[in-house]
Design a protein that fits this description.
Elements lengths: L1 E13 L5 E22 L2 E13 L8 E2 L2 H6 L2 H4 L2 E2 L6 E3 L11 H11 L3 E10 L9 E6 L1
Parallel strand pairs: 4-5
Antiparallel strand pairs: 1-2, 1-6, 2-3, 3-8, 6-7, 7-8
Length: about 140
């Protein structure tokens, strides 16, 4: 398990030209665990990886504010740049990267390659910040 690490969440939005753009948010003090599997069946070798990430409620969120997926989708691009969210299909990289401008999928692949970082596609998430003390509040992400 990697603890007290930096992750970058790239929230997906449709740009004005109908291209998908990814808005980055740097999150410090996160943790994640990865599980890699290999299998052999009928002469075919396959590999897979799954990730579980946890973002504490009081983590440094790049000066942005968390908002719901629905609210994020309804915001203007200018307003969305001040927020972050969790939604299926978002991308998380497990490296420190500092950029404020949105990127497209090609640029995102180049960034991950340059940083030698895992690229995690969000497949599930939970907002566990509604009850409990600030110490136990967190966001949980599952991905592959």
């Amino acid at each position: 398990m990697n603890v007290q690490t930096v992750l970058v969440i790239f929230n997906r939005r449709l740009g004005e030209d109908r291209r998908e753009l990814y808005y980055p948010t740097r999150i410090a003090s996160a943790s994640y665990m990865e599980a890699r599997r290999e299998s052999h069946a009928a002469g075919v070798h396959s590999e897979s990886a799954s990730f579980k990430l946890r973002i504490p409620y009081d983590a440094d969120q790049d000066g942005k504010t968390y908002t719901s997926e629905a609210a994020f989708k309804s915001m203007s691009d200018e307003e969305a740049a001040k927020h972050w969210t969790l939604q299926k299909g978002d991308i998380v990289i497990t490296a420190d990267f500092d950029q404020e401008d949105p990127v497209d999928a090609t640029e995102l692949d180049a960034i991950a390659c340059r940083l030698s970082a895992d690229i995690i596609t969000v497949t599930e998430y939970a907002d566990n910040t509604m009850r409990g003390t600030d110490v136990v509040k967190h966001w949980r992400i599952g991905g592959e």
